[in-house]
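ok here's Phosphate starvation protein PhoH:
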Amino acid sequence: MPLPKLPSKPAALLAPKDYPKAERGKTVKPHIALVEPAAPIAAPAAKATPQPQARITGKSPVEKPRAATPKVLESRAKSTTSRIADKLGVSKLFVLDTNVLMHDPTSLFRFEEHDIYLPMITLEELDNHKKGMSEVARNARQISRSLDALVSDIAEDAIDLGIPLSKLGNKDAKGRLFFQTKLQNAKLPDGLPEGKADNQILGVVRALDQQYPDRPVVLVSKDINMRIKARAIGLPAEDYFNDHVLEDTDLLYSGIQQLPDDFWTKHGKGMESWQENKHGTSYTYYRVTGPHVPSMLMNQFVFIEPKNGEPAFYGQVTQINGKTAVLQTLRDYGHTKNSVWGITARNREQNFALNLLMNPECDFVTLLGQAGTGKTLLALAAGLAQVLETKNYNEIIVTRVTVPVGEDIGFLPGTEEEKMGPWMGAFDDNLEVLNKSDGDAGEWGRAATQDLIRSRIKIKSLNFMRGRTFVNKFLIIDEAQNLTPKQMKTLVTRAGPGTKIVCLGNIAQIDTPYLTEGSSGLTYVVDRFKGWSHSGHVTLARGERSRLADHASDVL
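and the structure:
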């Protein structure tokens, strides 16, 4: 039998006069207790325009059942106290755990009109983590500098009234920052050691909950066990999900849209068509107008596959202006005459991906897909064709995140390229496939080709990327799902004139601690770059590695 939920707020007792009286023939409705507006945590003079705040009593029974909406996942991530406060329009007081500040140094300014409370133990933990060159240490130093700038010119006796978070120019942060300035004693359940930092923060949350019963107090932590402990002792706690691009990765932009079968019927009136020759290939263009156009994005692939035997249509959106769009036909890379370094597209999505990879106007390409969908092979084949054949770029640079799947094997000997060798096994496997595609070259010819390819491929480590500028390079970032948004920004901003960046990854295989599908750097760039005229994205759906690999992806 499952345990009942513990209440996140103590229930309010009604006065006898407030109880509803039963009358014959009349249904008694439950009474919702709301106390008159109460003062916020700061003194009334601290804010120019204090917002009215009502006491929230009880929990989910006062809420009416909601219809299913796209934001269901977001509401589930929030605590019950937060959801009721949002419904009533009440400002909340968020108590931040140390890991939130070290995960996102700008988190102080991302809580809109709500106030923030920092326990003293949080500042102690920040001080303990500020040393070193790791990402966590850099974040700890950055948040310490922000806090110093906030408190620098505040009088000692005014710090209890709260510091406006908009003081440093963050206009969206309309709340105030409060520090723990006095010891707060709150009784925690027996058995919880009082000396542990997490338990001290829980004690502060309980004390604030008792001290300000008219305000919703919510703990925000990235630590799952911390949130479980908080909820177990009846305190509202939730994850910091401001860094999540999407709550549900099923809603992530796929780069592909299937058009309805009656698309030409509804959009063919007054349609214009013409042909142009670009990069040695003839393309047909269609200018269409209709109700389906506003849902399209630049460089998005569209297709119609009628079931009545009519020919299929595959196109790409090249222009959008209101309800008018220009669709361009694609080059068929599934045909052997259009093969790229001996590689042909085996399915619809691979054809879309090769159209992006071989397009010199597209500077930034992201390819998502499960293991065996051909991401690395397509990117390498396109890179070799444009470096050695068309000479659009002068070399291929390959990099990836060095996060091991199992235990680390220790230090690796050799130069930077030799140390990266074990991480680049996937590229070696694909190069072997690409070298065998030319059956007429013979053993000596293949060996010469392999030496030529090796001379044009440079393997670089992510650790030495800051400050570099790549000019006329074909940059491939493999396993990009293990990058944080900040690391992804560092890499993408390395691009100089004439450089193309290709990001490959599978968000279902994240090995970096504290990164999720919603907060991965790959998800971040896919969402932010969609609709830009010089970028494109394709989610590869079908595995082409082998029947064994495809079956394993489905059943394991």
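+1. The chain is about 30% helix and 15% strand.
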